[in-house]
Amino acid sequence: MMPDAIIQTRNLTIGYVTRKETYPVQTDLDLEVFQGEMVCLIGPNGCGKSTLLRTLAGLQPVLQGEVCIDKLPLGKQSLSNKARLLSLVLTDRVDVNNLSVFNLVAMGRNPYTDWLGRLTDADHELVHTALSQVHLEGYANRYINQLSDGERQRAMIAKALVQDTPVIMLDEPTAHLDINNRVEVMMLLHELARRTNKAIVLSTHELDLALQTADKLWLMTPNNGIAVGAPEDLILTNKFQKVFAHNSYRFDSLTGNFMVKHADTPRMVSLKSSVKGNRTYWTERALLRNGYRISPDASLIITVDEDSDSWLLSTEEEVLASSSLQELLLQMESL
Ligand SMILES: Nc1ncnc2c1ncn2[C@@H]1O[C@H](COP(=O)(O)OP(=O)(O)OP(=O)(O)O)[C@@H](O)[C@H]1O
């Protein structure tokens, strides 16, 4: 039997209301999030990702329809109940620089402390456990302004962890991070969803990382709703490619990479190799980058030997050897 969704939306319209008009950003959203899964919300700039996360978290009003958390409509949840069900991590730089890492993370216990905000021994323990979960042991007494962007992001995640909610939502948790930290944060969130049975919903522009780590994608199209599915299903049904279609690049569904589109009138070249290995793949990439298109019938032929450090370029008149791709490309340019 399917478990109950921890978040469910019915016929949801999200957007903004000004004094003069209502501005719907997305309509008719029927979404479900289950515990133990990591959902990545992706889509082009301005399509409504932050608006959706803020609406699901109750930070901005529902324009139409309903959001239920733990089967109860958001509007019927008390503030303290909401704080025990859902935590939201925003990437906007919060002005907490004069706070220690410990005190920032401890703020996550606010829904549970007495009115003076006193922490019990168990709260202290939880803060230290969360710091070790995000690999910030030994940072408790550091000030937030003494952290790198990646460390600050992990401290914010630790704050959400001590809030001890079944749902954590994060708006672009990998923004401003280098590749190591981006991968680490995504892996950490995925692992937390699995290990602690939390539902994790995050928005991101890291398409390749989302494809590799999400249990489910929410693929948002401007003004046209959200397609939901396993990353690979959204690729096989062409939905992913459609949302990110562009004149200057294309999504290669065989490799899962975005490829820059080069010259409109490509030069043809034939690529021969006995086995299709690493060297053949990167030779092809170098050729595409330089405006060549691979065609088995082309008169210009490159032979790749996966076991040697050289390439052979054959024209109708001559055969030239090269020991690097740069040399090969120069030879081709000079023909
Ligand atoms: N306070 C606001 N009042 C009115 N419209 C707004 C407001 N904030 C955002 N919008 C508009 O709502 C739409 C969705 O914005 P939102 O920030 O949710 O998009 P997003 O998908 O998160 O974008 P990005 O990828 O650039 O972060 C945009 O057209 C934006 O201009």
TrEMBL record:
It is a peripheral membrane protein. PROSITE patterns: ABC_TRANSPORTER_2. The keyword Membrane applies. Gene3D superfamilies: P-loop containing nucleotide triphosphate hydrolases. Residues 7-247 form the ABC transporter domain. It is found in: Cell membrane. Keywords: ATP-binding, Cell membrane, Ion transport, Iron, Iron transport, Membrane, Nucleotide-binding, Transport. It holds the Pfam family ABC_tran. It comes from Bacteroides sedimenti. One of its GO terms (molecular function) is ATP binding. The keyword Membrane applies. Transmembrane segments: none annotated. InterPro entries: AAA+_ATPase, ABC_transporter-like_ATP-bd, P-loop_NTPase, Siderophore_ABC-ATPase. This is Iron(III) ABC transporter ATP-binding protein. SUPFAM superfamilies: P-loop containing nucleoside triphosphate hydrolases (SSF52540).
